[in-house]
TrEMBL record:
InterPro entries registered for this protein in UniProt: Papain-like_cys_pep_sf (IPR038765), Transglutaminase-like (IPR002931)
SUPFAM superfamilies, A to Z: Cysteine proteinases
Protein name per its UniProtKB record: Transglutaminase family protein
Domain annotation Transglutaminase-like: ranges: 74-140
SMART domains: TGc
Length: 204
């Protein structure tokens, strides 16, 4: 597992923020509808992760055009790129009292460096019974991408390839990075596919 740099107090990872809008009524409504009674925390984390991974589509995969940014928007539309999906997973778990953060990777936009680079978002989740953080990637699976819930080893959507200039940013953020927020706000009224292909940040 990656050694994360967690600099904020644990309770900050339960806060409601602009993008991780835990206090939104739709977040509360969804949590109330979940049949989690009798489940332990590990299974709640797994089920919530799998819901965001599998039931909230990645905009590029489904050729969706609306830019969703906040957790509540991704939940209502059941769609978003990795930024919105990471906000949603964080909001849902925080709403159930489970500290959750966001971290990032620098990846090639396509398979090789000549396609350019982009910043990819995933989540950190605190496992109280084990007093440790793990990373989960709810981007959404497809051929060549197989992210899974795992306690023993990371099974993320993408393996970072340093020889291609890719980077694992191991800072455990309690809120969305300002560059991510700015990107989503600047393109709120534009096309999600155009934003994804041409306007994502390339460095943090």
């Amino acid at each position: 597992m990656a050694e994360l740099q967690t600099k904020a107090p644990l309770d900050w990872y339960l806060r409601s923020t602009q993008m991780i809008d835990v206090d939104h009524e739709e977040i509360h409504r969804f949590i109330s509808s979940c049949n989690y009674e009798g489940k332990d925390e590990i299974n709640i984390i797994r089920d919530t992760f799998e819901f965001v991974r599998d039931q909230v589509s990645h905009s590029y995969d489904v050729k969706g055009h609306r830019v969703t940014a906040k957790a509540s928007e991704a939940l209502l539309d059941r769609e978003g790129i990795c930024y919105a999906k990471s906000h949603l997973l964080a909001a849902l778990l925080r709403g159930m009292g489970i500290p959750t953060g966001v971290c990032y990777q620098k990846l090639t936009l396509g398979d090789t460096p000549d396609t350019g680079y982009c910043i990819h978002a995933l989540n950190t989740v605190y496992l109280a019974p084990q007093d440790r953080w793990i990373r989960l990637d709810a981007r959404g699976n497809k051929p060549g991408v197989d992210a899974q819930f795992s306690l023993s080893e990371e099974k993320l959507a993408f393996d970072v390839r340093p020889h291609y200039g890719e980077i694992d940013y191991l800072t455990n953020h309690y809120d969305a990075h300002p560059q991510i927020v700015q990107t989503l706000e600047n393109h709120k009224e534009s096309d999600a596919l155009e934003m994804y292909l041409y306007h994502l940040p390339t460095d943090l």
